[in-house]
Design goal:
alpha/beta, elongated, 11 strands, two-stranded antiparallel ribbon, binds adenine, single chain, five-stranded parallel sheet
Length: 231
């Protein structure tokens, strides 16, 4: 069981994501256990504030130290399992499949989602967390990024997907010379749609030839769509 805690001022924003599909099933099967915590519940500010204007001026608001630190400390104390503390922000390490694989081996992940211009620097100085970005663009907050990371991580957990193989042969799991490949093309019924036929080899029943064909198609597709992965 992987315990996942998500700290945010908008806990409701993600509830839909976790109530459908594989993420819902993974919770029902006790493969993941997800908890939301509202950072606002931890503020001592009498107006319930969790942000303030930046010292030195400039646009936007900055998340204040006290509610974030108190929320993280309280959540950490809720379970003894050793945890990774992960902040989301555009200035973090770029999240990719090997990170998902590594995270899927954890006992507990604590995600802290920021809003506005980000966090008061002293939050990082005190907690020394890991910081992850999901790409070189700026979101309105870390919530969607946390959902992306939890989704990519959860599906790798044993039992989360229907068949044992489903997470194996797919984009970023196929590799050649240590380089990751995109997935090969998939086909299902009907065998012909208008004049488009499924490649004959896939209907041959020859598993060795099928594997070779798939690897080769994955290579061709990667060369065409993501040559950067091979360089
Ligand atoms: N918060 C704002 N932008 C983000 C990004 N690209 N990744 C993760 N968290 C973010």
């Amino acid at each position: 069981m992987l315990r996942i805690d998500i700290l945010t001022i908008f806990p409701e924003m993600l509830q839909g994501v976790f109530s459908e599909g594989i993420l819902r099933i993974a919770q029902e099967k006790n493969i993941i256990d997800v908890y939301f915590h509202n950072i606002r519940d931890y503020t001592t500010n009498k107006h319930g504030k969790t942000d303030d204007r930046p010292f030195g001026g400039g646009p936007g608001m900055v998340m204040t130290v006290q509610p974030v630190i108190d929320c993280v400390r309280a959540v950490e104390a809720m379970d003894e399992a050793s945890s990774r503390l992960i902040f989301l922000g555009p200035d973090g390490s770029k999240f990719s499949q090997p990170h998902a694989e590594e995270m899927s081996k954890s006992e507990r992940l604590i995600f802290v989602c920021g809003r506005y211009e980000g966090f008061d620097q002293r939050i990082f100085d005190i907690l020394n967390p890991e910081v992850f970005s999901i790409g070189d663009y700026v979101l309105t907050g870390g919530e969607l990024a946390a959902a992306v990371i939890v989704d990519a991580t959860s599906r790798l957990l044993p039992g989360a997907l229907g068949t044992a193989e489903s997470a194996h042969d797919e984009s970023f799991s196929l590799e050649i010379d240590g380089k990751q490949l995109l997935d090969y093309p998939h086909y299902t019924q009907p065998a012909t749609y208008n004049d488009l036929a499924v490649p004959e080899i896939l209907r041959s029943g020859n598993h060795k030839l099928i594997s070779e064909w798939r690897l080769n198609e994955a290579k061709k597709k990667t060369e065409k769509l993501r040559p950067d992965l091979l360089s």
